[in-house]
Amino acid sequence: MREAKRQLYPGCTKFSRFSFVVRLLHIKSLYRISNSAFSAHMKLLAEASPECNTFPKSYDEAKSILKELGLGYDL
After folding, report:
1. Which residues pair with 16 in a beta bridge?
2. Are 65 and 17 in contact (CB under 8 A)?
3. Is 40 within 8 Å of 58 (Cβ atoms)?
4. Alpha helices by DSSP H, 1-75
5. Which of 70, 30, 4 is nearest to 38 (CA)?
6. 9-64: per-residue pLDDT in tens?
7. CA 71 → CA 5, 20, 35, 64, 65, distances in Å?
């Protein structure tokens, strides 16, 4: 539940960290984006965003956020 309330970055009201990760993984699945391409996108987003962002740094980190909540993710 903590992730569902955690801000993506200070002042962000549109997404929580959890809702952002769910959307990212949904897009990854829809467009069959590889794990390495997903991780590269995450790295770029983190570099281009405010330093205090909470974006996952890789595919594995994004997947682990869902796993902590007992939600699986299979491609």
Report:
1. 7
2. yes
3. no
4. 2-5, 17-30, 35-48, 59-68
5. 30
6. 899 999 999 899 999 999 999 999 999 999 999 999 999 998 899 999 999 999 88
7. 17, 15, 18, 9, 9
